[in-house]
C-alpha cells in the first residue's frame, strides 16, 4: 500500500461559512463562543471529508482564523508592544484580529501589522514583527486543542507547523534592513527553537507520531548561513523523538538534495507539479530510513490530473522506494475551491475537466491504489472516466480560435513605446490642470447591500435591464457628487457594477468560464472566486466604456477609466495549462488594448490599469526573473501603448514586495503608479534611495484593510517622508487600495481627512 496524506485543506467552508462568521463577529452580531463553535464544526467537517476520501494522515493545524503564519506568530507569543499584550497571559483571539486588521470587538485599536503575498500566490499572510531582543513563549493552546478534537474523531493526525526558517525568513523588523534573507535574524534561533521543542514535546505527549514542518523557503535562493541554520533547527526538531516530515512546495529543492539526505529528519515532501525534474535526484539522495512524499496532484489549479502521466512518472520511484514513497497533493489545497459538487450550472463538458479540493483527494486515493497494484472494476472505471475527461479537454473545439492566433502574429509588429515621460506629462498637465499633491482613489467605493442585491436580482432575471442600469447610474452619480463635494482632483465612478476586479472582465471576454461557489481565501475573511481561463481570450464587446463615459458626463473633473491589467487577469485566474502563460497573457493584453483605445475615444483622459499581481507572478528563483519580467512588462505596454500623449496612464500595485523589481516597474512606463505603503510605514520608498524612479507616484497614505479612520497629521507625515526621497511635484495622495470592502461612514471620514492632508501639504509648499 502507498501512504497518502494532505498538506492542508481549505478552511473557509464550501459556502464561505468562516468568512460570514468572522464578519458577523467583527460587527458584534455574534459572540466569540459562536465563532469558535463554527470553527470547530468546519474542522470536523473537513477532517471527515479527508477521512472519507481514504487519506491516511489528516493534517491538523492547517485551520486559521486569519492566516496560518499569524496563527503561529501568536502561538509563539510574538505580539508587537502597541497591542498591549501581557507577557504572562495567553494571546487572545481578539489580539490576533487586532494584529491582522487594526481592531476587534475588544481591545484598543492599533495600527495593523503588515500584510503581503504568500510566495507567488494570491493568498496573503500577516508579516511577523520582530526585534533583536525578541522573546518567545508558548502563548496559545489552539494547536493542541485541535489535535485532541481530531483524535476524538478517531483520526490519524499529522500536525502542521510553519518551520522555524520559513517563519524567520518572512519576519521583519526595523533592525533587519537586508531583506528577508538578513542573516542577523538567525541570531534569534537560539531563543526560538526551545519553543518548537516545547510544542513537539506536547504533541508527543498527545500520542502524535508524525509532524509536518513546512519549510517552503527552501525553494528560494537560500544563503549558506540559512542552510547551516537548517541543520541546527532540524536537530532540535529530531530530538523530540517524533517523525518529522519536512514539507517543501512551489518549486525545486534539487540543489539541496544531498543536504536533505543528511538531515536527522524522517521524510521530505517535494512538489512534483512545479518541479518534476527534482523527483529522481531527491529520491537518490535520501537515506534508506527516510520517506519521500511526492505531490503530483496540483494543489494550485483546478484541472483534472492526468493520472496516466502521474502513474508513469511514479512507477520507477515506487520500485526504488517501496513503502518509503508517500503521495500527497503538491501543496496545501488552500489554494483551490472546496467541492466541485456545488457547481450545478457549469455545462457538463467544462465541469468534466475540473477537480476541486475534495475531488483532488479522490484523484490522490485512486492514484495510490493503482500504484499499489489495485486493479478491480471500480479502479478501472474511475481511471477510464479520468482519461476521457483529460483527453476530451485536449481535443475540444472550444479551446482554440483562429482569429486570436492571427491577432497574436500581427501584434508582433506593434510598437510598445510611447514618447518620453517628460513630453507626455507636459501634455497631460496642460489638459488636466491638476494641483500639487493631486488626490484620487484607487477605484472602487463601498459595495453596499443595496448594490449587491440589485446586481444579484439582475443576474437572476428578477430585475429588468433598464431598472438595473438606472440603479447603477444612480450609484455612480452619488459617488461622483461625493468626490466633487469633498474636493478630490481625479474622480472614479466607483465600480458599483463590478462583482470583482477580475471576474467582471472575465465575464465579458471569450475563453473564460465562471463557477458559482469556486471560492478561495485571499486573506482573513476576504474570499475570491477566480475565473477559469480554459481557451483563447477575445474581447467581443466593450466592457467599461458605457459606465465610464456616463460618469465623465456628470462632472468637469477627470474621471478615471478603471481596468484590470493583463498580468493580474492571468495571475488571479485558474489558467489553462496547455500553452505557456506568456501566450495567454498576450491574448489578454490585446483584449485590454482595444478597451483602452475605446475609452480614450469616448473622452476618458485618465485610464488606470491595475497590476497588483505583477510581483506575485515573479518566479521564486532570481535566475528566472528576467524572462518573466520581460514578457510581463511587454504585456502591460502592449495594452497601453496605443494612446495619445495627453492621455494619462495609471497603474496600481499593492501588498507585495516591489523593491527588488523597481527597474521592471519603471519599464512599464505608466505615467502614475499608486502603491501600498502605509502598513509598511513607507518602507517601499527605501527603494528610491538607490533607484531614480522617473514618473509620478502615489504612495498610499492610509490602510483600507483596517476600519480605523486615519489621522490628518499622520498622513501628512507619511507624505513628507515620501518627499524626502521623491520630488514633491511628482507625488500623488491616495489610499492604499480600493474601498470596496469598507463601509460608507469610515470611507467618507477617511477621504475627507485625506483631502485635508493634501491641502495642508499644498499650503506648506
TrEMBL record:
SUPFAM superfamilies: UROD/MetE-like (SSF51726). Zn(2+) binds at residues 652, 654, 676, 737. L-homocysteine binds at residues 442-444, 495, 610. Pathway: Amino-acid biosynthesis; L-methionine biosynthesis via de novo pathway; L-methionine from L-homocysteine (MetE route): step 1/1. Its EC number is 2.1.1.14. It comes from the Bacteria. The keyword Kinase does not apply. Catalyzes the transfer of a methyl group from 5-methyltetrahydrofolate to homocysteine resulting in methionine formation. Belongs to the vitamin-B12 independent methionine synthase family. This is 5-methyltetrahydropteroyltriglutamate--homocysteine methyltransferase.
